Amino acid sequence: MEDKKIRSFHDLDVYQNSYGAMLIVYKEIMPKLPKEEEYDLKDQLRRSTKAIPRLIAEGHSKRHQKRGFQKYIDDSLAESNETIVSLSQARDLYANYVDTKLCNELIDRYDKISRQLYNLALAWDKFNRRSRKTTNDSSYTTV
Hints:
Number of helices: 4
CATH topology: de novo design (two linked rop proteins)
Radius of gyration: 18 Å
Mean pLDDT: 87
Number of domains: 1
CATH class: Mainly Alpha
Shape: elongated
CATH architecture: Up-down Bundle
Structural class: mainly alpha
Order of helices and strands: HHHH
Low-confidence stretches: 134-143
Oligomer: single chain
Strand content: under 5%
């Protein structure tokens, strides 16, 4: 596999996957939920699906900080897991309203996103320990 250069958060596969999944949830799932879920399940899906790519983007801008990026990736993972639960609830409570097959596909997609975020957090922690700059100069050191 060829290594890709990461120049911005747009280059992260997990960002692209979470943004694409969010669009599907907005266009295909939320409009089909019943009106009584406007301020509960719909609102929760609205917030958690939008939060994931936002947190990834914000975290990427703080990647130079010791724990900055890690915190945002951890928060993204929590939002992704929350989205899985909300999609499961939509599927199980409102099978007459939503496409249950699509819900299952989205649950699988968000499960993959959660795994990508977990692996990114592990990889970032290893990278950060290995190539942290020293405080004395601009050279890299192994910690």
